[in-house]
Amino acid sequence: MADEQAAAQDQAPQQQFTLQRIYTKDVSFESPGTPDIFRKQWQPNVNVDLNTKSSRIDEEGNFEVILTLTVTAKVDEDTAFLVEVQQSGIFYVVGIEGESLRQVLATVGPNILFPYARESIDSLVTKGGFPALMLAPVNFDAMYRQAVAQQAAQGGETAITEQAAPSEEDGATH
After folding, report:
1. CA of 60: how far to CAs of 8, 19, 31, 84, 158, in Å?
2. Could you tell me the residue range of the domain that residue 34 belongs to?
3. What is the dihedral sign for C-alpha 154, 159, 165, 166?
């Protein structure tokens, strides 16, 4: 019986999720209100937009995950700065399919990429002459669950598996 269990385990595909590379895909920094903005009292209203996208890049199991963070800081109605970073990674994924694959690409990949994007944003902001900006950690698992719940409320159970998270093939944004 132990031999049968060992044989069954050998035949089951091994699940693997491996980081191949992390890179910056796009960076933008604008400070349209300078130098006048520096004379105002620094009490900014900071808005952070976050998006993830994933796509299959080959048939060997490699996927690109792109985390886009856009941060806009305003003082009164004047834009102090706008910074956008697209932090990307290539991940090798084997033995994970369907909804599980979409969930891994929407949660684990962005969790790995976020610290790199956060550091890039902080660096750009300080080089632009503004005080350091340390973004709070993001719970990508909770965001994924919320997206799934919204999909269920809008279109029923079928829509969840089709559109809840970035698709491994269509590069959908969530």
Report:
1. 24, 14, 42, 31, 28
2. 14-163
3. negative
- The pair of structure tokens assigned to 11 is 């035949």
Q: Is 172 inside a domain boundary? A: no
Q: Return the pLDDT at 9.
A: 55
Residue at 6 is within a domain: no
Question: What is the CATH number for 77?
Answer: 3.10.420.10
pLDDT digits (tens, 9 = 90+) for 33-73: 999 999 999 999 999 999 999 999 999 999 999 999 999 99
- For the entire predicted model, the pTM comes to 0.80
How many residues in total does the chain contain? 174
Residue 2 covered by a domain: no
- The pLDDT value recorded for residue 164 is 30
pLDDT (0 to 100) of residue 148: 87
- Sheet harboring 45-56: ordered strands across? 16-30, 78-94, 62-75, 45-56
